[in-house]
Design goal:
Distance between the termini: 31 Å
Number of strands: 2
Shape: globular
Strand order of the largest sheet: 1-2
Oligomer: single chain
CATH class: Mainly Alpha
Largest sheet: 2 strands, antiparallel
CATH superfamily: MFS general substrate transporter like domains
Number of domains: 1
Radius of gyration: 23 Å
Number of helices: 22
Strand content: under 5%
Order of helices and strands: HHHHHHHHHHEEHHHHHHHHHHHH
CATH topology: Growth Hormone, Chain: A
């Protein structure tokens, strides 16, 4: 651990990786959170602003239900591909190169979306934007995970993810300000889509100055001296009072070495990754839970203005936007804040389990209790509680867990697959929500979201608890899941085999 006050400790005996695990929180961590968080704020803003913008575009371009669903869902479908592709690329060529590239894609696509003269051109730029946003998910999560210490890892990655709350709030606020000032609906939706280019452009510059992941450089590339040098330059030579400038050569550093400790590790190929039982079980948990969460979460969130219109048909567009904003501020933001504060205390997997269970209960109340979908206040209370436990639960943890559970050479790939499958669930949720609502009604559509949430709780049991453990211990397969412990208690062989 780092020494207190002005005392300066040398890096621990097991080298740079050990130093990263054991240091206290410092300005280095906060700078990394800021840069990653700005990118993730842009992701969230671009993903969710379409719910408001499409309401205005529907009025201007007279979209039918199918085109409205396609407009809301296109970016999510592209995000699925972006996460899969860029996650894999980040493991092959490094996290940093992908880090700034996806931000550049987002900046260009935001401007193109705002200037789109027709529906299909808008769809094309939204697709491009989705590729960039999808690619940002694995690199933002994995880089912050690999910078973090073991004690505060969940909190730090959760801080990055929590910038989604700002993205949820800023969009409706800007929309209300523009519409309140008398701006035309056509200009309003174009400005809403263009604004996403501003933080994305700043992120391109900031990310180009970030160091490559030191864990990736040491354990995959075998570039220990380079990792020391780049991290030392970015952090001013110390992190949490621990010197990280390190020795001048790889051979002198305890991290160096082909075997054992935290030195260079064997690179795992994609075929081996996708055919090894342990990794397949982990992927089923991380990707499956993310799919189920995003189906319920994005389908409801992006369709919230339409849901409010169904509950209160006389509400104006501005009223619907204001109610949506109130739900985010009152229910979602406290969930994010409490999740950041408690994730490492409660446990990452346990928090996900609790959140899924409470979501299922809330949706069940809405779907089964008489009159819930015709009375605004009771509906909003139950809907708001579901939002709270989505944020204080699986919406945060499905982002955190995939960055922790896989080996360093496949960490971004595993996170990218999980995020990609999750965004496919989001695509289905957003595309199907208006269709299901039209055919089944709002009660049964939300009741289906309750069943999906319950399935997420069950699937969470296959995952191990990584909270408080080093990434190297986790990726070695030394942490059993609840399902494996239950099998072991019943006399079955639940040993986690290595790769």
């Amino acid at each position: 651990m780092a020494s207190e006050g002005n005392d300066m400790a040398e890096a621990p005996a097991d080298g740079l990786i050990g130093a990263l695990d054991d240091v206290s929180l410092s300005r280095f961590h906060l700078r990394a959170v800021l840069v990653s968080g700005m990118g993730f704020f842009t992701d969230a803003y671009d993903l969710f602003i379409i719910g408001v913008a499409s309401t205005l575009i529907k009025q201007n371009w007279h979209l039918d239900t199918t085109r409205l669903a396609l407009l809301n869902a296109t970016m999510l479908g592209a995000a699925c591909l972006g996460a899969l592709c860029f996650g894999r690329i980040a493991d092959l060529i490094g996290r940093k190169r992908v880090y700034w590239l996806v931000a550049a894609v987002m900046a260009v696509a935001s401007i193109g979306s705002a200037l789109a003269p027709s529906f299909w051109i808008l769809i094309g730029f939204r697709f491009l934007l989705g590729l960039g946003v999808g690619g940002d998910y694995p690199v933002s999560a994995v880089l912050m995970t690999e910078y973090a210490n073991r004690k505060d890892r969940g909190r730090l990655v959760g801080l990055v993810f929590s910038t989604q709350a700002l993205g949820l709030i800023v969009g409706p606020l800007i929309a209300l300000a523009l519409l309140g000032a008398g701006t035309s609906t056509d200009l309003t939706w174009r400005l809403l889509l263009a604004i996403g280019a501003l933080p994305a452009s700043a992120v391109v510059y900031l990310r180009s100055r970030m160091p490559e992941s030191p864990r990736y450089q040491v354990q995959v590339q075998g570039q220990t001296a380079t990792a020391h040098e780049q991290l030392g330059q970015f952090s001013g030579g110390t992190i949490g009072g621990v010197v990280v400038t390190g020795p001048p050569g790889d051979a002198a550093d305890p991290d160096a070495g082909a075997a054992g400790g935290t030195g260079q590790q064997r690179r795992i190929g994609l075929r081996e990754f996708l055919t090894t039982r342990r990794f397949l079980v982990l992927l089923s948990g991380t990707a499956g839970c993310w799919f189920l969460l995003d189906y319920a979460y994005y389908g409801n969130t992006i369709s919230t203005p339409q849901i409010i219109k169904l509950i209160s048909p006389t509400a104006s567009t501005m009223t619907a936007i204001a109610i949506q904003l109130a739900i985010f501020v009152v229910a979602a933001v406290p969930g994010y804040l409490l999740g950041i504060a408690r994730i490492d205390k409660i446990g990452h997997r346990r928090l996900q389990l609790v959140g899924f269970v409470m979501m299922a209960l809330c949706f069940a109340v809405i779907g089964l209790a008489p009159g819930m979908t015709t009375a605004v206040l009771p509906f909003m209370i139950a809907y708001g509680i579901s939002y709270f436990f989505t944020e204080f639960g699986p919406n945060m943890t499905t982002f955190v867990l995939p960055g922790e559970l896989f080996p360093v050479s496949m960490r971004a790939t595993g996170h990218g697959i999980s995020a990609g499958v999750g965004k496919f669930g989001a695509f289905l949720g957003v595309f199907l929500f208006p269709v299901l609502q039209e055919r089944l009604g709002l009660r049964h559509t939300l009741l289906l979201a309750g069943f999906v949430s319950a399935a997420g709780a069950l699937l969470t049991l296959v995952l191990p608890e990584p909270s408080g453990r080093s990434l190297e211990e986790i990726s070695a397969g030394d942490v059993p899941s609840t399902a494996e412990l239950l099998l072991a208690e019943s006399g079955e062989d639940a040993r986690i085999t290595g790769s």
